[in-house]
């Protein structure tokens, strides 16, 4: 049975209080506070700092450690800014969001959408992915966001409400393929984050910064089964502090008579696009995540005879 998308996330009283409290703090002061907290987190939480620096060293072996430390600190600072701006999202409107975001390549989305097969989008934890959930519905139309519910109910409600307050809907991961296929048949836009580690049973290994990274195949499966175009979408911070929402032309999807090879090839294409943007904006990606946690040897064990 298909999982029904969540139509609306109603904010709890606690969510309302949190949003109003942080919104009451002037944005420049809020940014300064969050940056101070994340600076402390960088120095205090040794494990996450080591993960970040290890990821950077493996991704950029040609860079010296002082440069990697600079990028790492920049990534923490970027997360602080993203979180401080998060509390602005519910109050932005069609008239005010343009002060925050400019679009590049919106015509690529319009061309893909005109095919009337719905649109799938490649999304990553790059730039301000939370602000994307505001910008696109205000500029074009609401999106259906595939997500994993957070373990903390308070945070789950907070993030769920902010992500849907401008008309978006959430689709919980796990058995959601039929739901998404149905939405695509209704010409809906689906956003799928594909830049995080998954278990060996959920993905395939593709190259990411020259290392095998286990990556979810859901986006490739949907593209192959539905014929929906796949649009790369990233919202990156510019030196001015404003964001540029970049939409690229639809990715060329490989379709042969080898299903497994097509899954891997197309997932590799999607991942290659993400890597290109991470290289352009290295301090705007989520390096704190253990992207290469799942190892190829785990896949071998999974496929070995018992």
Walkthrough of the structure:
The chain has 306 residues and is an alpha/beta fold. The protein has one domain (13-291). The protein has eleven helices and nine strands. Strands 1-9-8-2-5-3-4 form a seven-stranded mixed sheet, sandwiched between helices. Strands 6-7 form a two-stranded antiparallel ribbon. Strand 6 (203-208) and strand 7 form a beta hairpin. Helix 1 crosses helix 7, helix 2 (27-44) packs across helix 4 (65-86) and helix 3 crosses helix 4 (65-86). The longest helix has 22 residues, at 65-86. The chain is globular. 37% of the residues are buried.
Largest sheet: 7 strands, mixed
Strands side by side in the biggest sheet: 1-9-8-2-5-3-4
Please state the overall shape, judged from the principal axes of the Cα atoms.
globular
Structural class: alpha/beta
How large a portion of the residues is in β-strands, by DSSP E?
A: 15-25%
Helix content: 40-55%
Features:
15% strand; 7-stranded mixed sheet; 306 residues; two-stranded antiparallel ribbon; alpha/beta; 47% helix; globular
Please give a quick description of this structure:
The chain has 306 residues and is α/β, with parallel strands linked by helices. It is built from 11 helices and 9 strands.
Question: How are the SSEs ordered, and which strands pair?
Answer:
Blueprint (H helix, E strand, L loop, with lengths): L12 H12 L2 H18 L1 H14 L5 H22 L14 E4 L1 H8 L5 E5 L5 H11 L4 E4 L5 H12 L4 E4 L4 H9 L3 E5 L9 E6 L2 E6 L1 H9 L3 E8 L5 E5 L11 H22 L15 H8 L3
Parallel strand pairs: 1-9, 2-5, 2-8, 3-4, 3-5
Antiparallel strand pairs: 6-7, 8-9
């Amino acid at each position: 049975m298909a999982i029904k998308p969540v139509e609306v996330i109603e904010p709890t009283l606690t969510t309302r209080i949190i949003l109003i409290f942080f919104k009451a703090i002037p944005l420049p002061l809020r940014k300064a506070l969050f940056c101070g907290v994340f600076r402390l987190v960088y120095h205090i939480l040794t494990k996450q700092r080591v993960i970040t620096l290890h990821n950077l060293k493996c991704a950029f072996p040609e860079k010296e450690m002082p440069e990697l430390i600079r990028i790492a600190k920049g990534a923490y600072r970027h997360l602080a800014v993203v979180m401080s701006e998060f509390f602005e999202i519910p109050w932005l409107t069609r008239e005010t969001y343009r002060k925050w975001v400019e679009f590049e390549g919106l015509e690529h989305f319009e061309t893909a959408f005109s095919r009337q097969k719905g649109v799938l989008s490649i999304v990553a934890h790059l730039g301000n992915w939370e602000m994307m959930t505001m910008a696109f519905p205000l500029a074009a139309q609401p999106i259906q966001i595939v997500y994993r519910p957070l373990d903390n109910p308070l945070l789950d409600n907070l993030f769920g409400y902010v992500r849907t307050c401008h008309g978006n809907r959430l689709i919980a991961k796990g058995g959601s393929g039929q739901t998404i296929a149905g939405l695509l048949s209704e010409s809906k836009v689906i956003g799928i984050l594909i830049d995080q580690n998954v278990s060996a049973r959920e993905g395939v290994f593709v190259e990411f910064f020259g290392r095998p990274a286990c990556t979810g195949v859901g986006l490739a499966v949907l593209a192959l089964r539905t014929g929906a175009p796949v649009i790369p979408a990233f919202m990156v911070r510019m030196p001015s502090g404003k964001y540029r929402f970049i939409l690229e032309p639809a990715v060329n999807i490989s379709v042969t008579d080898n299903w497994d090879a097509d899954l891997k090839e197309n997932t590799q294409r999607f991942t290659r696009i993400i890597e290109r943007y991470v290289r352009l904006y290295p301090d705007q990606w989520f390096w704190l995540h253990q992207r290469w946690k799942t190892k190829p040897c785990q896949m071998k064990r999974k496929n070995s005879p018992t």
